[in-house]
Amino acid sequence: MTTPGRSRSSESDRPHEPVLVGEVVSLLAPRPDGVYIDATLGFGGHARALIGAGAGRVIGIDRDADALAMARDELSDLAAHLTFVHADYRAIGAVAAAQAASGVTGVLADLGVSSMQLDDPARGFSFRQAGPLDMRMDRSSGTTLAERLADVREADLADVIFTFGEERRSRQVARAIVAARDRGELTDTGALASAVRRAAGGRGWQRIDPATRTFQALRIWVNGELEGLEGFIDAAFAALAAGGRLAIIAFHSGEDRIVKHTFRRLAADETQARLLTRRPVEADDDERARNPRARSARLRGLEKVA
């Protein structure tokens, strides 16, 4: 599995920095007459780079209304090139049909959680700072972490933690969480992190906080991040015009596995698609040192032939 998190001392020490920007621009090869969709807009770093490299129009999708509002401000100087859409990235088919009926030149999806979300305790993603047990990317819909934990069975929770976090002590962690819940101790993310650390932590200093894998698993579970990913890829590919390109950055091994196999399925018909990356593109040493988030990033690309 790719590295799931950051050191205990810092989940995010700097404002959100997009990963593999140069590689994404090279892969999508933006042009002035092209229409591009950034399906996970975030703070807009990739969108800015695409426009700076010549993209005529970028449609930015994000299911996080707060992130979308911040992106509007951050990218206000490029408003003439941008369209903002509040939607789940998996709704790309409907967005493309409404915004680019003649076809899309390129699509990007950065599947990772942003540093902005991690840094805001009110969102409930952080194990460093106490916040509500929420973890929803889109706070206007869906079930919060607190609601999911309220009646989850211990065995089911262990499966979630092992499958999405690859936590070797998933059973012990699930047992500790359920016990803390039953005692009425799960009041916020700080209490949750403490329960997890007691069950998953070893002795002495550790590079990765013992709560990292479990918090990753719970976030993926709450947001259904692996559900519908293959469908998204199929819909994004269908939205592309001939010669259009699809680029996806994955941070979790399960996500990357789905991307790899779906790309290979589509490219099995050489008259339909071709792989642009036989192996995933990874950040170089300089980017890894500068931006810890880049350490687990894997970029894959696909081109629509006809």
Number of domains: 2
* N- and C-termini, Cα separation: 35 Å
In percent, how much strand structure appears in the residues?
5-15%
Helix-strand category: alpha/beta
| Average pLDDT for all residues | 90
**What general form does the structure show?**
globular
| Contiguous runs where pLDDT drops below 50 for at least 5 residues | 1-14
Query: What would you say the CATH architecture of the largest domain is?
Result: 3-Layer(aba) Sandwich
Q: What's the CATH C level of the largest domain?
A: Alpha Beta
Strands in their spatial order, largest beta sheet: 3-2-1-4-5-7-6
Number of helices, counting only DSSP H or I runs of 4 residues or more: 13
| The CATH topology of the largest domain | Rossmann fold
> How much helicity do the residues have?
40-55%
- In this structure, how is the largest beta sheet organized? 7 strands, mixed
Structural overview:
The chain is of the alpha/beta class and 306 residues long. The chain folds into 2 domains: 170 residues, 3-Layer(aba) Sandwich (Rossmann fold), CATH 3.40.50; 81 residues, DNA polymerase, domain 1. It is 42% helix and 14% strand. The chain has 13 helices and 7 strands. Strands 3-2-1-4-5-7-6 form a 7-stranded mixed β-sheet, with helices on both faces. Helix 3 links the parallel strand 2 and strand 3. Helix 8 packs across helix 9. The longest helix is centred in the C-terminal third of the chain and has 15 residues. It is globular. The N terminus is likely disordered.
